Fold:
Amino acid sequence: MSTGLAADVQSERGGFRLSASLDVPAGSVLAVVGPNASGKSTLLQLLAGLLTPQQGTVRLSGRVLTDVARGIQVPPEHRGIGLLGQDPLLFPHLSVLENVAFGPRSAGAGRAQARRTALHWLDRVGLDGLGARRPGTLSGGQAQRVALARALAARPDVLLLDEPLAALDAETAPVLRQVLAEQLRTTGTTAVVVSHDVLDAALLADQVAVLHEGAVVEHGPVTEVLDAPATRFTAALVGVALVPGVVRAGGVHTAWGGWPVSAIGAAPDQIPDGGPCVVRVRPAAVTVAPAGENAEAGVEGMVKWLEPAAGGVRVRLAAKSADLAVPGVEPGGKGPDAGTDLLADIDPARVDPSWLAPGARVRVRLDPQRLALRRS
Structure:
């Protein structure tokens, strides 16, 4: 039966401090996302018992695994927690079948029962018929599937996954992501998935926690957090810009232009006159044109860079006009919650280096009906 995991831990190593609380209900999946060096892997190591926090507790279905104040630190092998990372760490001297059967055998199952369990899980991850092979003969994707089968065959109370898809190629990762999603759902396994890829959160998890510099800056249902990111770090993960502004005389004023508050779909009295605000801008709300085209529409901006995007080209744009003096937001978008750069998606047929290249001046227009407004 799946069990819930709760933790409230503080840890400091090499000058880096992590302070995080989480509560993962039984049978649910929590995604922990954030930039590199934000503390994601450290958090998993604390949950698995590989590290001991300076303060805090870890509980699994009411059982205390870590309690620093009481001197309790249950060893990793006795926690009922499985850990799967980027490296499959398969036993090279054992066959694929023997690798997967290792968990059940360690838990006391007989050889025949462990073999049946291993065959079952190899079939579940799409590797039926490969049981006799050695890990050295497998592709990276196959090895990671074996590692997943081994982790699930051990029937852990909680499964921790530390960027399990990061080392896979672009063709293998989506396949294994789907396999992982299916197995977590059908088995009802309580899991914590660490990733820097927002797609993992969207497809695998029920809840998402965003870590930045060792602190949880956002937490909630995946759909809510990804649809309406509240911090610049989360917005960047989903390709959304949070632009600072100010409300004056029923209008919203930003470095990218101004619009009546009502045009954005917000109530005129939602933010008091003179109050700071943040405008949430998705790439679909941004139109980019050559600098000399319809000079009365939009504002002037500068192309910072271009990169491939799904179905087109993604462009990062910097505003030419100076940032507004918005309380709580530093100039240049360096505050904790907002910046002035925008992202726009351009049809490949419109990409012309004569006007759309790094450093080029362009006209940028935002569709107010596709914007969202909140207090700063």
